[in-house]
């Protein structure tokens, strides 16, 4: 998907301290920026949804390519935030909601990399195992 990847992640959920809690548990909500990042992923992924949901074990390979800044080189690994596990959480949640697979627990193998790139985007390959 040719796009500037969102940098907001699932970890940025907020707790509503003022609201009452449900059964003693805090109430979480998604801030506006997180909702926008999720909507951006949904819009870009929707057109790539497979005709049939994956139902067996899969390998998910994702390359997160962020726009180059400063003195970074094209293809250089990005070692700053956001963390790959946080990026993947929202991506897999969106793919589950869109119907790419029956459950993201099917992802038995995962290869995730993040780079600085002249051409930003998120490149995804799903492979049946």
TrEMBL record:
<dbReference type="GO" id="GO:0006310">
    <property type="term" value="P:DNA recombination"/>
</dbReference>
<dbReference type="GO" id="GO:0000287">
    <property type="term" value="F:magnesium ion binding"/>
</dbReference>
<dbReference type="InterPro" id="IPR036614">
    <property type="entry name" value="RusA-like_sf"/>
</dbReference>
<dbReference type="GO" id="GO:0006281">
    <property type="term" value="P:DNA repair"/>
</dbReference>
<dbReference type="Pfam" id="PF05866">
    <property type="entry name" value="RusA"/>
</dbReference>
<dbReference type="InterPro" id="IPR008822">
    <property type="entry name" value="Endonuclease_RusA-like"/>
</dbReference>
<protein>
    <submittedName>
        <fullName>Endodeoxyribonuclease RusA</fullName>
    </submittedName>
</protein>
